[in-house]
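Tutorial, part two.
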Amino acid sequence: MNILFAILRAFLIGGAICVFVQLVLNFTKFSMARILVSLVVLGALLSALGLYAPLVEFAGAGATVPLSGFGHAMIEGTRQAIDEQGWVGILTGPFTAAAAGTGLAVICGLLASLVAKPREK
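Running the prediction step on this input gives:
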């Protein structure tokens, strides 16, 4: 029964983030790129203020899968790297924490480029 509540929490929080982004997309003239970058920055800012970690504990994947979770992962990776390596961690932490997600995005982009047919706009 606990796992069902965890799945429900993840679905509701992740869905709420998606609804918020869709509303921004529908009712503003922001480009998709600006919205996506804003999500990463918002997640990083909320994480730096200590507000995103409780959301991650409550919602799990519902808070870590959206792009705001990517910003959170970069900040948490930086904090951990600073604790382990000192100030050098500022340079290495974000890349180490976000390596899996970035690597997967590159691999998926490569696979999509092999399957898709290019065409002119």
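The chain has a mean pLDDT of 90. In part three we will examine how such features are distributed along the chain.
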